[in-house]
Amino acid sequence: MEDSRKLAQAVHQKLLEFYGAPIWRNPLPAIDELVSTILSQNTNDHNRDRAFQALRQRFPTWEAVRDAPTAEIIETIRPAGLANRKGPRLQQVLQQISAERGSLDLSFLQAMSTEDARHWLLKFNGVGPKTAAIVLQFALGKPAFPVDTHVHRVTGRLGLRPEGMSAEQAHIYLEEIFHPSAYYDAHLNLIRLGREICVARHPKCPACPLYELCAYGQANCLKN
Ligand code: SF4
């Protein structure tokens, strides 16, 4: 574990030198981030944003989204894909939150510990570790390390997590080996690396700032 922490710190530093400190878009209220992240499942940011904006334009409030005929929600969020699944799931989460809290304001989570807030979010069907971590980190400013497909792939190649560990399991593991102060930057920079260099099919190892740290890259690609 100590070696993994050292490697995580080295990866974080190299990525900061290479990409600089990343900037996430303006933080959204927690309920907006939750809706956006549910829409993002199995699609890209562009399609997620199109569906989110369409919802915002068609319905004045999240209460209106919650109470609308499901067919209208499905039609509105089509750009995000899997609309027949995401529409009912989104409304169910909004209904459950309303039933429990009497409103859709999630700002009460701010006063909870990270683990209590995570636990609260995870009880809703359709909210997994990644969705919870995104809401915690980006809407509430709490230390959490979301693991998407890019983070999962890149950390696997780097040997930052055990081979075969699922993305769900990797949330807790990566939170152990990265320092909490590094979560935000490391998460975003690993995604960028995964999109631009450590791509799924043919990683561009010779151009990678992490080559010297990466056994996979050294074993599979010659630098020159
Ligand atoms: S050296 Fe290659 S495999 Fe390793 S992180 Fe970089 S691109 Fe990915």
Structure description:
With 224 residues, the chain is an all-alpha fold. The protein has 2 domains: 97 residues, Helix-hairpin-Helix base-excision DNA repair enzymes (C-terminal) (Endonuclease Iii, domain 2, Orthogonal Bundle), CATH 1.10.1670; 110 residues, Hypothetical protein, domain 2 (Endonuclease III, domain 1, Orthogonal Bundle), CATH 1.10.340. The radius of gyration is 19 Å and the shape is globular. 36% of the residues are buried. Iron/sulfur cluster binds next to helix 9 and helix 12.
Q: So what's the oligomer here?
A: single chain
Major β-sheet annotation: none
H-E order: HHHHHHHHHHHH
Number of E-state strands: 0
Report the end-to-end length measured between terminal Cα atoms: 32 Å
Nearest-integer average pLDDT: 94
| Shape assignment | globular
Write the CATH fold name of the largest domain.
Answer: Endonuclease III, domain 1
Radius of gyration: 19 Å
Counting structural domains, the number is 2
Percent of residues in beta strands: under 5%
Can you tell me the CATH class of the largest domain?
Mainly Alpha
Helical residues, percent:
55-70%
Helix/strand-derived class?
A: mainly alpha
Number of H/I helices: 12
CATH architecture identity of the largest domain: Orthogonal Bundle
Ligand identities: iron/sulfur cluster
